[in-house]
Task: structure prediction
Amino acid sequence: MEFKIDGKSHHKARACTIKTAHSTIQTPVFMPVGTQAIVKALDANDMLELGAKIILGNTYHLYLRPGSKTVKKFGGLHGFSKFPNSFLTDSGGFQAFSLSDNSKPDENGITFKSHIDGSKHYFTPQSVLDTQYDLGSDIMMILDDLVALPNTKERIKKSIERTTKWAKEAITYHKEQQSKGIGVDQNIFAIIQGGTDKEFRKLSATQLCELDFDGFAIGGLSVGEPNEDMYETVEWTTDFMPLDKPRYLMGVGTPEDLIENIERGVDMFDCVMPTRNARNGTLFTSYGKINIKNAKYKEDEAPIDPECDCYTCKNFSKAYLNHLFRAGEISYFRLGSMHNIRYYLNLMKQAREAILADNWLEFKKEFYAKRGVTKE
Result:
């Protein structure tokens, strides 16, 4: 991986370039979520048309179905899905934790039951990397021990200790595998934990950032805590993260969340929000969200967003999308998802341009003004 900072603007906002084996990624970047090796309702060609340079695959789901060996047989995620640009795969730890009725972490890994058939499985720092070597992703997230919030200080402290232990095991194993010619074009990111406790975040960040990872993520946020707590935690945590490596905030979020956290020094984001909301009828625009199923759009000739250049906005009216949604037409899922993802990708492009021109504050002010929000 190559990484360079191209420009900085107000506070910690920065524009960077990440080069992987499969694409050049300009940050800030939003990574659409492709849980099953592609984004729901879309295919690889759609993602290329939308301009996506990197999407996120889910290790837990692909491990269970179709199985990493099957994906490997077809040339990894790139050959299997035909999406030629970069993939980031998470470790699967979050899904093992959240989708299993009784996942049980111990000092060496996580025991969980498949949400598909109830079969029992065990993830270790090494085994999730083996799965990701088969998947052939450009960026691999390591296994971490995450906990539900709120929680006791003892349990959060334990999660940090375990996460650091597993990180050391993962980086050692990865270097060993690379020396054998395995995963040589794959990069590895660690995940900082600690809830919203500043001292715990500092402890986790300090321990992990001493290790030779290619990048670092902030995990365990956007799990129900107030937005201001999330922003404050990110603001604090990025101070302890290296300047010369990518910073990734996992599972976040709304357009407003992205803008606020870019200002706090984050480079990379992912979230199911644009696609999930599209399927439920919520579409993002430069002027805030709209619900396309509302009756007021039944005869609306305008596109979803007059400022958007996506295929949907260039060709179809709100009235047509309102009709498709109400009629239960599957094509609505594709058209709505295409728009929301393009909106997110365009927002990141505009943010990058503002940083490079060093007029972040003006950009942010206009972003909120269009939404009818006055923001200092």
